[in-house]
Design brief:
Bound molecules: (R)-mevalonate
Structural class: alpha+beta
Oligomer: single chain
Distance between the termini: 46 Å
Shape: globular
CATH topology of the largest domain: 3-hydroxy-3-methylglutaryl-coenzyme A Reductase, Chain A, domain 2
Number of domains: 4
Largest sheet: 5 strands, mixed
Radius of gyration: 26 Å
Number of strands: 11
CATH superfamily of the largest domain: 3-hydroxy-3-methylglutaryl-coenzyme A Reductase, Chain A, domain 2
């Protein structure tokens, strides 16, 4: 039976690996060797990775790939993507090429406002709290000056602080709802530091003012940024003429109508909307990961945004007007191109370099395009050939690797399956055929 461990974080890496192997893998040398195999030869690089989190044993590899030919606002990008799903990069590249001859992608920043809140309880007269808040409001800005100074110099900072009364939802619940401009930083540390200062100011001012009786006393519960950023939104769009038969510059009427219906279904049907949006996140998350941003924050915010009108719905939209097909996405993305992993992780630095060192706004546009392209590629397959053809073709390599096929066998079987249905069983049978 395993027993709890004391002081694990103080073990050396080797001791941690020994402990894990001893307690969980039958002291397997294979486990120990494998974990060591994935260490980086360059001890400096390894140290970065070790220090990102606690109790690091090894590195966990994901492929770092490139989807080229993305024309965005008339500029050509090759987009770095980190993802394990076999068909995602191929689909992105295909969509990029499809739109390259049809004018490319256009993007617009609709807002860059970040949000944070100080949640507190107050059981007195709300009008008394309102007047108190209005009187002390300038003090919040003053007390946070040492935190905001350098951000303000660059044109960012605190945008506004408002008092929200939510006591109809939860007895005594109020909040300071605060908005920020954090420029090229994702801004989590900046926002959280400001919020903790606001909470201090709120409490100090309340006790100094001698305004509230004991029963009315303010009690701060917590101060934290929100990952829901409905005013930090970017739009990415493609459009092209509709003709009876598709050309290099147009799409066919039949295809445009079908794609529009596929989007319409995802707008009204949550089971479909979730999968539809999952496909969008294939594109978004892989660029977010490659550029060292926080994909959990983005995921949480995006899905909340997809439900903003009361039902979980499609993030993309399609329209046909005057024989023009238009397909677009509005997506909230709080991203950074400075701070955090962006200046630490060597692969992240490279990804940003490949993207021509984008500002946070530019990165928002690139990420939104990756999401839109991914959705377009998925819908295009779904309403024409079906998804499995492309998926299983890409998955063929995974199956061959699982079955231990060598280089020669892989080449033969990739050729063989060019015009055949790929399945686990059919690949196994074909491989056995070659081997016998
Ligand atoms: C698979 O990862 C993503 C898709 O299911 C998206 C979709 O159905 O739109 C293909």
């Amino acid at each position: 039976m395993q027993t709890p461990v004391e002081g694990f974080s103080r073990f050396t890496k080797e001791e941690k690996i020994d402990w894990v192997a001893k307690n969980y893998t039958g002291n397997s040398q294979e486990t120990k060797d494998l974990l060591a195999t994935y260490w980086n030869d360059d001890s400096k690089v390894q140290q970065f990775h070790d220090e990102f989190i606690e109790n690091t044993l090894s590195n966990y590899y994901l492929p770092f790939a490139i989807a080229p030919n993305f024309l965005i606002n008339k500029k050509l990008y090759a987009i770095p993507m980190v993802i394990e799903e076999s068909s995602v990069v191929a689909a992105a590249s295909k969509a990029a090429k499809f739109w390259l001859s049809r004018g490319g992608f256009k993007t617009t920043i609709l807002g860059t406002e970040k949000v944070g809140q100080v949640h507190f309880m107050y059981y007195g007269e709300s009008s008394k709290l309102n007047s108190f808040f209005e009187a002390i409001k300038p003090q919040f800005f003053k007390d946070a000056k040492s935190i905001t100074q350098s951000m303000e110099k660059r044109g960012g900072g605190i945008k506004n602080i408002t008092l929200h009364n939510l006591s109809d939802k939860l007895k005594g619940y109020y909040q300071l709802h605060c908005t920020f401009e954090t420029l090229d930083a994702m801004g989590a540390n900046f926002i959280n530091s400001c919020l903790e200062q606001f909470a201090k100011t709120l409490q100090e001012q309340a006790s100094n003012a001698n305004l509230f009786s004991n029963e009315e006393e303010l009690e701060v519960i917590m101060s934290i940024l929100s990952n829901y950023v409905p005013n930090c939104v970017v739009r990415a769009e493609v459009n092209c003429p509709i003709t009876n038969k598709a050309t290099n510059a147009s799409v066919s009427r039949e295809f445009a109508e079908k794609l529009k219906q596929a989007v319409a279904i995802a707008k009204v049907e949550p089971y479909r909307a979730v999968t539809h949006n999952k496909g969008i996140m294939n594109g978004i998350d892989s660029v977010i990961l490659a550029t060292g941003n926080d994909f959990r924050a983005v995921e949480a915010g995006v899905h909340a945004y997809a439900s903003k009108d009361g039902n979980y719905s499609s993030l993309t939209h399609a329209e046909i007007t005057n024989d023009v097909f238009k397909f677009w996405i509005d997506v909230p993305l709080a991203l950074g191109t400075v701070g955090g992993l962006t200046s630490l992780h060597p692969m992240v630095k490279t990804a940003l370099e490949i993207l021509q060192k984008p500002t946070a706004k530019e990165l928002m546009q690139i990420v939104a395009v990756a999401g839109l392209a991914q959705n377009f590629a998925a819908l295009r397959s779904l309403v024409t050939t079906g998804i499995q053809k492309g998926h299983m073709k890409m998955h063929l390599m995974n199956i061959l690797n699982q079955l231990g096929a060598d280089k020669n066998e892989k080449t033969q079987l990739i050729g063989y399956f060019k015009d055949k249905m790929v399945s686990n069983a059919s690949v196994k049978e074909a491989l056995e055929g070659i081997r016998s």
